[in-house]
Each structure stands twice: as structure tokens, then as C-alpha cells.
Amino acid sequence: MTAPLVASALPLPLLRRGKVREVYEVDPDTLLLVASDRVSAFDVVLREPVPHKGAVLTQLSAFWFQQLAAVIPSHFLSADADEIVERIPSLEPLRPALTGRAMLVRRTTPVPFECVVRGYITGSAWAEYQRSGTLAGEPLPGGLVESARLEPPIFSPATKAEVGHDENVTLARLAQALGRSLAERLKQASLGLYEAGRTFAAPRGIIIADTKFEFGTTPDGRLLVIDEILTPDSSRFWPADRYRPGKSQPSFDKQPLRDYLAGLKQEGQWDGDPPPPPLPPEVVTARHRCRGAACCAPTMRYALEA
Q: Distances from the Cα of 301 to the Cαs of 60, 64, 237, in angstroms?
């Protein structure tokens, strides 16, 4: 078995090391993203890597970027290691480490907000609703239960915090920061991508409960969806045949990790800030319930491609 990749080191200029990915400059117009096996939750990077996670994120993103290209174009160029090495011959000795987890993309200027779409009320949205009946301070209908379907889906942007935790914000605040025109474009693009994604996934037995998108602009003003799209890191996927509103749902994503850490927070064993607590092996793999990112996401892709 190939050892997990904690961090990549390529003979290219390193522009950024994020929670999960390294971003390298290929030329002024092109970047190379390499997804490591690092995992984060509650905006904190955990010490333990999840084997194969980077390949899962990259290949699912490649699938969705191409599947949803008619909704809005993306920065995606290629996730094929042979094509990448042909474009950048100096990477030939590193081909095994890049296979599956590297993506060649167009360079954009990132929009400094995450564009979240919620089709069901869960996670931080459910926690806020329980406290105050709101989402990002805006009132929601009364009487909702955990995991209830939201119709229509709600556009719920969030800040992108380099340090600390992201914060849900209103559309009005997004418009104040970016201008009303761009804010509306982001909302429509996000809702369109989510609707197309969940429509595609539904007959294949998968509920896309919520997701976040990131966008960037090109020098000529085009809006592109960037980073990753509809992956177990950016979304919640539920098996439709096990969906039962009124409680938390089994997941094809990193929910087992979130649940474990949330339990530690409730017990006062972790305050939610770095340094993170150590993870037991069963949480890293989450294979015994077929719910972890490393084991279930490939199965999910096979279902989506069927």
C-alpha cells in the first residue's frame, strides 16, 4: 500500500499551502493543485492523514467539473498524470506521487468567500436554528427538524478564514463586500450547480444535503468555479434509502470525523482550536460502517458514473 501523502514537494514555485492542497505555479496562466491526504474539520487540520483521500477529492472534482460544465465553466484542465507530465516534463520522476491527486487548472483571482448551498438543515445550520431559529441571523420557518429538506435550497455564503473559523454571512453582507452584481452572479451560479448536481445524484441513490463552492474570476471578467466541487470534503452526501428526517444521517463523507470531534467538544476535552486531538484508527478509516471518505467516496463515484 502506498503511504499517505502528508505534503507534496515539487520542483515548481509553491504559491500556497492550504488545509489540504498545495498550489504550484506552472506558468503565469496555469496552476497545479496537489491534494494531500491531510484532513480538516471545524477549520482545523488534524495530525493524522486519511489514506487515498487526496485522490478521492481530485477524481471526484474532475468528474463533477466536466459533468456540470454546461452550468458554469470551471478552472479544470486535466487530472490525468500522463497529460500533466507531458506538459511539465520535470515532474516525470514524481509521476507515482502525482497519479490521481494532481490537477492542472487555469489561474484565476479567487473570490474571498465560500458559497454554501443548503438543501437540508444539518451541521452548523441546524445548531444555529436550534439556538435561535435563524441561519446567519436570518429567520427560517418554524417547526423544522434535524435533516429536514429545505425547499427551495438556501444560499448561505461564508467567510474564508485563513486563521480561525469561517463565519456564515448574509447575502447583503456579501453584496456589501463584493458589489451587488457579483454577489447575485455567485448566488445564481451556486444554486444552479447545486440543483444540477443533486438532480444527477438523486436517481443514483445519493442525496446531496449541502455543499460549498469556490469561485474565481479571469482577467477578462469570466466567473469560474474553482478548487474542488461536490467532494466529501466540501459536501454532505447521504444514502437516499436510509434517509430519515428528525436525526443525523449516515454519510458518504467525513461526518464520522465531525461527530467524533463534536463529542470531544461536548465533553470539554477539546476547545475546537489548534492543536487538534489525536484520532483513533477507527475514526481515520471509518471503514467498519462504510462511511469514511477513503472507503465510500470511490463507491459513490462508481454509482454516479453508472
A: 7, 10, 12
pLDDT tens, position by position, 208-220: 999 999 999 999 9
pLDDT tens digits for 66-103?
999 999 999 999 999 999 999 999 999 999 989 999 99
Residue 208: closest CA among 144, 149, 265:
149
- The whole-angstrom separation of Cα 69 and Cα 24 is 24
Q: How far is CA 112 from CA 20, 215, 216, 217, 222, in A?
A: 17, 9, 9, 11, 16
Torsion angles phi and psi, residue 69, rounded to 5? -60, -30
Is there a contact between 56 and 232 (Cβ–Cβ < 8 Å)?
yes
Q: Is the pTM of this model over 0.85?
A: yes
pLDDT at 302 over 60: no
Q: How far apart are CA 85 and CA 262, in angstroms?
A: 42
Nearest one of 229, 185, 179, 264 to 66, comparing CA atoms: 229
The burial class, CB within 10 Å (0-12 / 13-18 / 19+), for 181 is: exposed
Largest Cα separation within the chain, whole Å, is 59
- How far apart CA 292 and CA 285 sit, in angstroms, is 6
